[in-house]
Amino acid sequence: MDKAHFAPGGEAGRTGGCLCGAVRYRLLEEPTDPGYCHCRMCQLASGSPAMAFAGIASAAFRIERGEPARRTSSAVGERWFCRDCGTPLAMRVSYSPDTIDIAIATLDQPDTLPPAVHIWRESRIAWFETADTLPRHDRAQPKTMEQCPGLAEGLGAGPRTTASATRP
């Protein structure tokens, strides 16, 4: 990762925001664990086959303009988005309340934070495949599943019918 974006205690840091500019944020430390999420909730929240997120400590995430709308999308967590243009900005998951997962695409320089893993591939849309060699997990990463054994039940966002089965 490009560390040039971060200067502890200073105003430097990665910045980002929504499409219309109503919400702007700054990251006061380097995000961690970037990855693609293929869960059904992310598909519905974004209108796309997957979302790319990275985690950051809540204390290191600062809103500099506007205020994101917040909606509890499931027992898993709360999604943050721009109330004016609808851009999905972040998610605070219930099993890690001191962390915020930011949508990588909302960074001003998203190219500098590439995903390193795929999660929730069991919910992958069949026609969507990425041409990378990143690790792939049917559900969350093993370390997350160990910390939160009931997580799988919380990711249902309603059934989705595919040619082979109905999935959450």
Explain what this protein looks like in three dimensions:
This protein has 168 residues and is mainly beta. It has a single domain (14-154), classed as glutathione-dependent formaldehyde- activating enzyme (gfa) (Alpha-Beta Complex), CATH 3.90.1590.10. The chain is 10% helix and 32% strand. The chain has helices spanning 40-46, 142-147, 151-154, and strands at residues 14-17, 24-27, 32-37, 51-57, 61-65, 69-74, 77-81, 88-93, 99-103, 118-119, 160-161, 166-167. It is globular, with a radius of gyration of 16 Å. The model is unreliable at 1-10 and 156-168 (pLDDT under 50).
Compose a concise summary of this entry.
With 168 residues, the protein is mainly β. It has helices spanning 40-46, 142-147, 151-154; strands at residues 14-17, 24-27, 32-37, 51-57, 61-65, 69-74, 77-81, 88-93, 99-103, 118-119, 160-161, 166-167. It has one domain: glutathione-dependent formaldehyde- activating enzyme (gfa) (Alpha-Beta Complex).
Describe the secondary structure blueprint for this structure.
Blueprint: E1 14-17, E2 24-27, E3 32-37, H1 40-46, E4 51-57, E5 61-65, E6 69-74, E7 77-81, E8 88-93, E9 99-103, E10 118-119, H2 142-147, H3 151-154, E11 160-161, E12 166-167
Key descriptive features of the protein:
disordered N terminus, glutathione-dependent formaldehyde- activating enzyme (gfa), 3 helices, 12 strands, globular, mainly beta, disordered C terminus, 168 residues, 3-stranded antiparallel sheet
